[in-house]
Design brief:
single chain, alpha/beta, 137 residues, three-stranded parallel beta sheet
């Protein structure tokens, strides 16, 4: 996950932790792409501040690093105009402020259900130990 606003990042990490999904926050594009490059699939949370700073070509750079990754854009109310562009670029979904937990939980659950059976699933046997690409980033 690469989220520019600390309070939003903490909120998303809390939602994912309550559902026992492992997540890692990164601080730069290089860190994100390095995390994704060995992965076959994963879930990437981005916020509108990152897209405004780095531009919509970030979506394609993420796709090149991890073709099986799905992206979720967290969009501030002021940046709603980015949603159409994001969806056209292949972003799985967008969540608009105030970032309701059920919206993020539902998207993650649906993405994980679409991953092939060998992907990590959040089950009692693999939640704490698994660190493969089925986790949100």
């Amino acid at each position: 996950m690469w989220i520019s606003q600390p309070e939003t990042r903490d909120h998303v990490l809390g939602v994912l932790a309550r559902n026992e999904y492992r997540a890692r926050a990164v601080e730069s594009e290089a860190d994100l792409l390095q995390e994704l490059s060995p992965a076959r699939r994963g879930i990437v949370f981005l916020d509108s501040g990152i897209i405004q700073h780095y531009g919509p070509t970030l979506y394609s750079r993420i796709r090149r690093a991890c073709a099986g990754c799905r992206m979720i854009l967290l969009c501030s109310r002021e940046s709603r105009t980015l949603i159409r562009e994001a969806m056209e670029a292949g972003v799985y979904g967008c969540v608009v402020e105030p970032y309701a937990p059920w919206e993020m939980e539902t998207m993650v659950r649906h993405i994980l259900a679409d991953f092939p059976e060998d992907a990590a699933r959040p089950t009692d046997s693999n939640r704490p130990e698994k660190e493969d690409a089925g986790r949100p980033s």
